[in-house]
Amino acid sequence: MSTPASDGGAGDGPPLDVRVDVPRTRDAEFTAFVRDSSTYLHRTAYLLCGDRHRAEELVQSTFERVYRTWAKVKPGTARAYARRILVNLRIDAWRHAHRESFPGDDNIPIPPTSDHAGHVVLRDELVRGLARLPLNQRRVVVLRHLLDLPEADVARELGIAVGTVKAANSRGLARLRDLLTAHAEVVEPVVVDEQVVLDRSRAALRRRRTGQAVGAACLALLVVLGVLTRGPVPLPGIGPVVLPGGELIARLLDDGRTDWFGPGPDPAGYTRLACPDDLPGPTPARAPDSGLDVGPLVDPVVVDTPDARPLTCYDADIEVVTPGVLDDQGLPVTAYGEPLPEPRGLAGTGHIWTFDSRELLDDDDTTDEASIRADGWAGDGSGSSSTTLTWYQDRRASPTGLAVTGEHVVWSDYAAAGTSPRANFVSTASLAGGGITSSTEPLVTSQENVWLIATTLDHALWTAGDTADDTRLYAETLDDEGTPTELAAGVTALAADEDEAMAAILTPGSGETSTTSIRLFDDLGGVDPTGTLLMEFEHDSSSVVTQIAVSDDVIAWTVSLGADGPGDLYVVDRVGDSDSIVRLPDGVADDLRAAGGVLSWTSTEPGVQDSEPASYLYRATPSASGYDGPDLARFPGGSVTASVAGARTAWLETAGAGQWLVRAALAPTLERE
Question: pTM score > 0.70 for this model?
Answer without folding.
Answer: no
